[in-house]
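Structure ticket #2291
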Amino acid sequence: MISRKTSKIEEPIALFLVGVQCRSLKSFWKLPFISRKMSKLQNELNMNKDSGLLWGENFISFKPFTTLYLSYWKSIEHINNFANNSNFSHKETWIQYMRKYYKDKNIGIWHETYEIDPNKAENIYVGMSLFGLGAVGQLSEISHSTENFNKRLNK
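Resolution: structure written out below.
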């Protein structure tokens, strides 16, 4: 039987989405530099257990070419600390990007930040390995008390 699970978080956490978009083949050659820098930043986070990163995963879309790094953090403050902490290469990377690629209208960098209230978060994972909130929160089998959306939100 395929497992059906849900995950519960007890404290607010942060969801951080970040990525790059390339809208023209003329600028595609710039992506390896950006990808290497993003990979370096992610490695720094994974190596530093105090960074506040709880879990992250990369995704790619092709129309237009867009990357997405979906990540969960202990707090929005941890994300801000990472961005401004000289122990990480984020600031240096941002300065390099702005100098090299800021004027290229075919390349864009984006991010979105959200705080997740544990009382307003719901999820279900059917036949999945650890993913998203399931990799961050307290994972449990779906039961009578969590069998539908409203029950998982305690409504």
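Closing remark: The chain has five helices and seven strands.
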